[in-house]
Write a structure and sequence with these properties.
Elements lengths: L6 H17 L7 E7 L4 E3 L5 E3 L8 E6 L4 H17 L5 E7 L3 H11 L5 E4 L3 H6 L6 E5 L4 E7 L7 H8 L7
Length: 175
């Protein structure tokens, strides 16, 4: 039986063209968004440390909304702590924002589930209202120009290799 040899080069080209796209796709549960401006915010923690999204321009920022009463947040926080340890400064700036809980609640929750993490408090809910997450936890990746590029709703295993690789170079990925 004779094979059609003219289709083989086209098949090889198709595979070569499609492989890079598959290799650079965002991990499961991370949605690539049409870039839109990230709502600016300035937030502080119980110790008075401040963070401004505007001041973080030029860097990728991992903005993560959470609450202590949220069961997926409780499961996810240890993976975020391990993610930060694994990235060792090679990924985006990580900003955890607690939604409308007091400093004691935040402190005791993190001491129990992820003692190395540091979180800011959106005590009055204005930041959460501006970002409008459709549930908790909600994570957004903001690019160096201040545009939201990726979103993850619900808990993610941020410390798994596929997620770590993605976070080391978020700008090199597309869906």
């Amino acid at each position: 039986m004779r094979r059609n040899r003219t289709t083989r080069p086209w098949l090889a080209i198709l595979l070569l063209v499609s492989l890079p796209a598959a290799a650079t796709a965002a991990p499961e549960g991370i949605l690539t968004l049409e870039p839109r401006p990230a709502p600016d915010f300035e937030v502080s923690d119980a110790d008075g440390s401040r963070f401004s999204l505007e001041a973080a321009r030029g860097n990728w920022v991992f903005v993560h909304f959470w609450a202590s009463w949220c069961a997926p947040c409780r499961r996810e926080m240890p993976s975020i702590q391990r993610m930060l340890e694994a990235l060792d400064g090679q990924g985006p700036r990580v900003v955890l924002i607690n939604t409308a809980e007091d400093a004691d609640t935040i402190f005791f929750f993190l001491a129990e589930v992820a003692p190395e993490l540091h979180s800011y408090s959106d005590r009055n809910g204005r930041i959460t209202e501006a970002w409008q997450p459709r549930g908790l936890p909600a994570t957004y990746l903001v690019d160096p120009q201040g545009f939201i590029r990726y979103q993850a709703l619900g808990g993610r295993p941020w410390d798994e290799p596929l997620y770590l690789e993605f976070l080391r170079r978020p700008g090199n990925h597309s869906d």
